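Schema walk-through. Below, the input block comes first and the output block second. Nothing else is stored per chain. Lengths vary across the set, and this one has 365 residues.
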Amino acid sequence: MENASLFSPANPHFFQPLLTGFQSHLIIPVKFFSKHIEGKHEGKTVKLRSDSSDRTWKVKMEGHKLTEGWKEFAKAHDLQVGDVVIFRQEGDMLFHVTAFGTSCCELQYVLSGSHDVKEESDVIGIMKSSFRESSRREKESSPSLTCFNQTVTAGSLSNGAVGVPLDFARRNGFNKGGHKVVLMNQEGESWESEVKCKRSGQVFICRSWRIFCTASRLEVGDSLQFKLLQNTETPVFQLSSHLKPRFVTITPSASNLEIGKQYLPVHFTRANKLDRPGKIVLVDKDKVEWSMKLKADIRSTYIMGGKGWKSFCAANEVVAGESLTLELIRRGRIPLLKFCSKMEQPPFKTKTRERKRTRVQRLSQ
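--- output ---
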C-alpha cells in the first residue's frame, strides 16, 4: 500500500526550463529543496530515472544544485536550451524526469539501433546538430499517421534544412532515398522541396525550408504541425497549425532595475503580437500580480514598471545579471507574464569583472 502513494498526483514535483549553461548544473528550486529535501535526507546523491531506458542515473547534489553526473544525464537525453524538465519525487532521493520540448509536448525517445547519430561524411554537408530534432524526438504524438510536428530552430534556418520524425518517415515511405515534395503554408502558397535520408537513417527536408519560413512569417521557437496530402502527383506537406513561443528568458542589468525598464526580445514580441502599447501583468513566484505598462520604441517593445520592475525581480530573488524565464498567458485583452524560474549568475563572470576592476584601478594609480 505504501508504494501506491508513489504514483499519486500528490507526489512532490518541480519543473525547470533549461537556460543557457544548464549543462554544467541544474538548480533545484529553493522552496522545493527546503520543504522536501533539506534536513530530511542524509545522502548527497540523487537517483534519476526516465522513460528512455531502465537505467538509473546517480547525480551528485551540492546544496540545491545537481552537479556531477547531471551533464551525462542531459547529454544522454539530448536536452537542449528551451526544453522544460519535470522532476517527480518517487522515493528517497529518487526522481522520475520527464522532458518537454519548446512546443510544450513531451519528448519521446526511440531505442531503435537505426537511430545512430554518429558523425559521418555527407555530400549535402549540413551540420549534424540541425537534425537532432528528428533523431531524439519522435516527439509530439501525431493525431494521425499523416501528421508530424516540428519546431523552428536557429539551426534549421541557418542550414536551410529541418528534420522529419523517423516514425512519420517510415510510415509514409520517406525513410529511403530522395523524394520530391511540396511545402504549402496556411495561405495556400507552395514551394517545391525535397526530402532526403542520410546513411545514418536521419530524414530531413533539404530545399526551400528557409524561403518557406520567411514567406510564412515563421520565427525561431514557433511550433508547427504538418499534414501530408498524398492525393496529388507530388506529396504535399501542408502547414496545418502554427503556435507561437510561450516562454521568454530575459536578463535584467543594473540600469534596467534602476530605471524600471526592461526590453523584451523582438522575435518574442512580434510572434505574440506584443508590439503595441498597453497594459501587462506580471505574476511572481508567490502568485502576486504586478500591473505594469507595455511600451515600444524603434528598438523593441519593453516593460515599463518604474520601481515595480525592481520590486518584482526582488520578489523572485533575481538580481542584476541573473536570467529569469517568464511564461506568456493570455487572459482577455491584457497579456500576463508568469515567473517560471531563474538562473543564477555563473561565479566566473563575477570573478572576471573583479579582475577588470582591479586592472582599471592599477592603471589609474
